[in-house]
């Protein structure tokens, strides 16, 4: 006999509860909308599966056996929990409830996600967000391994198994010490960087490649012996006049507005940007939880940052 045959069905449990509540086969059958013989067959099948007599037929109806009373209690609990699970599934499908596991790189998450988390909490208080930062390569690997549901990282992202959605373009600013010759410039031209020492994060970060490209294009010098492990480390090295670096606009807005003015950021006249996007496993499709996150990110970019710090995803 298979395992399935040894277990009562949900239909049998529902019919048994209806019979117990009605006290009569006829009334229970009418309530359920089936014939009385069909109900009798289902109750007999349940007794056979459980190897336990559940009801006693009397002239005025039925009474439950002691075993039947115990089974009824469990049947009610099982049906109630099943209804709860079904309700939960509907809420999860709607995107109004659940936990979204989010990964981000440390050059993006701490400066972009607080606004998104705040908006999600206000709009969908039952939706929980479990966020964790990590190096870009680790974040992508964790996404593919199922440890994250969605990640926010710098684009482009080369992974055939991922769906990618661009979120925004973020200006990159040149950060220099307050007494650096370029600190007084309103805007920079590429020619201004000729011979300037530039600092970068380690090569696992996409920003490293952008600093290297800027060196090639302008004649600046990459100081490879000083690779920062974080944007804060780069800022501290810049403050000590060890070189200049590129800082994302959201970082500058968050961290430099409260600093003592030892580091100054200057924009590029022609504009220098990085593109930030969200990615999730293609096999997931596009579930409602991810839709809610993308909508929140769009809202925050459009209402809080657009026109002042960032360009939205539709820009250039």
TrEMBL record:
Keywords: Activator, DNA-binding, Transcription, Transcription regulation
UniProt keyword annotation of Transcription present: yes
Ranges of residues in domain HTH lysR-type: 8-65
Recorded GO CC terms: protein-DNA complex
Gene3D superfamilies named among the record's database cross-references: Periplasmic binding protein-like II (3.40.190.10), Winged helix-like DNA-binding domain superfamily/Winged helix DNA-binding domain (1.10.10.10)
InterPro entries in the record: LysR_HTH_N, LysR_subst-bd, WH-like_DNA-bd_sf, WH_DNA-bd_sf
Gene Ontology MF term list: DNA binding; DNA-binding transcription factor activity
PANTHER family: HYDROGEN PEROXIDE-INDUCIBLE GENES ACTIVATOR, TRANSCRIPTIONAL DUAL REGULATOR HCAR-RELATED
Family as reported in the entry's similarity comment: Belongs to the LysR transcriptional regulatory family.
UniProt name for this protein: LysR family transcriptional regulator, hydrogen peroxide-inducible genes activator
Species this protein is from: Lutimaribacter saemankumensis
